[in-house]
Write a structure and sequence with these properties.
single chain; 210 residues; alpha/beta; Purple Acid Phosphatase, chain A, domain 2; 6 helices; 13 strands; 24% strand
């Protein structure tokens, strides 16, 4: 299964220079937040593939102009061709904006998923906007990660953890791929495509982390 992930910055290559066949081979698209709703609608329409999304901290406008044809998987475990995808959007609370949570609020969201997690036996992909606390996050309140995500990864050991929020053009050390125990961590900034079943993704993440 070939998956395209994206977050935080729209790709001019896709939006302004679209060519037929650009999405050939893509089976699933995951948005990790903070993208223009019209951009998501465009990508879903042109690819004609399922596009799943969660909210970033700047996605309050989705309530007025929602991404058409796309599916929000906030606080859900979505099954796609046997792959279980858990969606938990939002950032650490730093103002009064939408889709911001304290650490305790995020923990409560996760506790409410207990029965769903029991029914599915866990998940294969964790899709979030924010990173894990202490793992490629930042010291400023806005870009701090959640400790609750680390606890989820520790308990369920998913194959992939996909997040956005920490832009790779910030000048920080924010690699595209890294490894946390046996989970491949992918920063979805702008766009990245990978094969879910390709062991080379794990090996590349391991090399970068080492």
């Amino acid at each position: 299964m070939k998956i395209m992930v994206m977050s935080d910055l729209e790709s001019n290559y896709i939006w302004d220079h679209y060519q037929p066949g650009m999405f050939k081979g893509i089976d699933l698209i995951l948005s990790a937040g903070d993208l223009n709703a019209r951009y998501l609608t465009f990508v879903e329409s042109m690819s004609n593939m399922p596009l799943l999304y969660i909210h970033g901290n700047h996605d309050g406008r989705y309530s007025e102009i929602p991404p058409e044809g796309c599916q929000c998987i906030e606080d859900q475990i979505y099954m796609h061709d046997g792959v279980r995808i858990l969606g938990l959007g939002g950032s650490m609370r730093y103002s009064h904006g939408k889709h911001q949570y304290s650490e305790k609020e995020m923990q409560r969201r996760i506790r409410r998923l207990k029965l769903k997690l029991m029914r599915t036996g866990g998940f294969d992909i964790l899709l979030t906007h924010s990173p894990v606390a202490g793992f490629h996050d930042s010291d400023d309140p806005c870009h701090q990660g959640f400790e609750a995500f680390g606890e989820l990864l520790e308990k369920y050991q998913p194959k992939y953890f996909i997040h956005g929020h920490v832009h790779m053009n910030y000048g920080l050390r924010t690699p595209r791929l890294s490894l946390r125990q046996n989970t491949v961590v992918i920063n979805a900034f702008r766009t990245y495509t990978f094969d879910y079943d390709d062991p080379a993704v794990l090996e590349e993440a391991r090399k970068i982390t080492e």
